[in-house]
């Protein structure tokens, strides 16, 4: 859902205005070309998948301070995305220390991995728009977990482009960032 701030205004919101915006609620927003995009409440399966992956990365030895849910990422221009799960590099974790807001700014190192769990009616944003934006940030790996299509798409940043692999059923997911990870698409999609 796009939020219109002033029906009589054709002005768009800047990054600074976005970071200072407070509508008096606990609502979360993304920013897309100056427009606020309301983040709808997560479904139980989406929440479960994100939590399951967080636990898996902890088991892989990723320290908790390098894992984050709902961290904002400034991607390109006046775009801010809020992925379901982010794995920070050590350098990014250091850059985030003491931050007043959990936001990966454009001058900071890129995350190692970003996970988006597809919600109904949001697939084009996850598969198309965010793919381009995360690619422009040079994020090493981007996972699109799609419980609707029953697949996990892993995008690996190779020579300036994302190479795509789609996993379904009992196929083991291969990760260039987490080479020891042993998960199937079914496990991820069940969130258990």
Write the layout of secondary structure elements.
Elements: E1 2-3, H1 15-20, E2 29-32, E3 35-38, H2 44-59, E4 67-68, E5 72-74, E6 80-81, E7 85-87, H3 90-96, E8 103-104, E9 113-117, H4 123-136, E10 141-146, E11 151-158, E12 161-167, H5 185-190
Strand numbers in spatial order across the main sheet: 4-7-9-10-11-12
Helicity range: 25-40%
Largest sheet: 6 strands, mixed
Please report the distance between the alpha carbons of the first and last residues: 30 Å
* Annotation field: number of helices: 5
Radius of gyration: 17 Å
Mean pLDDT: 90
- Ranges with pLDDT <50 over ≥5 residues? 1-10
What class do helices, strands and sheet pairing give?
alpha+beta
* CATH uppermost class: Alpha Beta
Query: What's the overall geometry?
Result: globular
The CATH architecture: Alpha-Beta Complex
How many independent structural domains?
1
CATH topology: tt1808, chain A
Number of strand segments: 12
> What letter string, H or E per element, gives the SSE order?
EHEEHEEEEHEEHEEEH
Q: Which percent range describes the beta-strand content?
A: 25-35%
CATH homology-level superfamily = tt1808, chain A
């Amino acid at each position: 859902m796009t939020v219109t701030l002033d029906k009589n205004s054709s002005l768009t919101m800047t990054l600074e205005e976005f970071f200072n915006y407070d509508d008096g609620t606990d609502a979360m927003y993304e920013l897309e070309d100056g427009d606020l995009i309301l983040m709808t409440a997560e479904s139980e399966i989406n929440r479960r998948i994100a939590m399951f992956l967080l636990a898996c990365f902890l088991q892989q030895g990723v320290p908790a301070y390098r894992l984050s849910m709902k961290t904002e990422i400034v991607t390109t221009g006046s775009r801010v995305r809020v992925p379901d799960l982010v794995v920070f590099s050590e350098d990014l974790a250091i850059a985030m220390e003491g931050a007043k807001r959990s936001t990966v700014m454009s001058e900071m190192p890129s995350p190692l991995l970003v996970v988006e769990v597809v919600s109904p009616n949001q697939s084009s944003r996850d598969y198309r728009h965010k793919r381009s934006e995360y690619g422009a940030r040079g994020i090493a790996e981007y996972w699109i977990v799609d419980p609707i299509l029953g697949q996990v798409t892993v995008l690996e940043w190779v020579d300036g482009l994302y190479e795509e692999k789609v996993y379904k059923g009992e196929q083991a997911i291969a990760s260039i960032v987490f080479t020891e990870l042993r998960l199937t698409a079914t496990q991820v999609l069940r969130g258990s």
